[in-house]
Known about the structure:
Elements: H1 2-13, H2 19-42, H3 48-74, H4 80-115
Helix pairs in contact: 1-2, 2-3, 3-4
Amino acid sequence: MKLFAVRIIKIIDQMPRNQTSMVTGNQLLRSATSMAANYSACCRAKSINDFINKLKVVEEETDETIFWLDLLEETGFFNEEKLSAIKTEANEILSIIVASIKTVRRNSATSQNRKS
């Protein structure tokens, strides 16, 4: 996840320096680095619920990152070819996070049912 954030930083550094790109780039920077930071926080979760909540934040930030990448492409800051790989990776990360949340919830429910 951290390497993903590094790749985003490198993309942002290639953007032109104007007001629109600065605002858009800043939003992308915030969401992508938040993905990485919150994923790191998952490793220190204090409970299953805490872990799920932290993963939900990663899900939201990943979704936002995809939005900003799409916007950069649609406004012409970068062409589809330039962003294709990073957008694919972001969508794969989102799929993994959503699947992880479902798995943890299912396993948690199964564990609770065994205790009853």
